[in-house]
Write a structure and sequence with these properties.
This protein has two helices and eight strands, in the order E-E-E-E-E-E-H-E-E-H. The longest helix is centred in the last third of the chain and has 9 residues. By secondary structure, it is mainly β. It starts with 15 loop residues before the first strand and ends with a helix.
Amino acid sequence: MQLSLIDEVPEFNKAYFLDVYAEALYDSGKEKMRLKTINGQQVPEDLSISIASKFISRYPEGTIYKLDTKLVNKNGKKPYFVALKGKQVERAIEFFDYNLKVQYGFDQEFSFRRAASGRVMPVQVTSRRAAR
């Protein structure tokens, strides 16, 4: 949950938000990927998150990320977040199925198997369109 450690650690103030979910969107004006918060959280929706696009451009538009942020509120500008530990940003495991569908297409169905290495790997079962 957002602000989960803020009240416990006095050196943090209310400018730090933990576990913020954001969606990767392609900004055609700047021709790069960027992050915006998604709705249903304890933070305002549609706030931009400042992060180097090279860390989020590995996956397609629509991928959901989970990250810790700091709120920046400059005079005369719309508030925005800055990602903390931007180099370590990862896709949100809570949106695992959704992120798979973004990567491989929404008309695919998956099952999962354990590989020899112990990792759980998606296996394409069928295409919904082909099953019709």
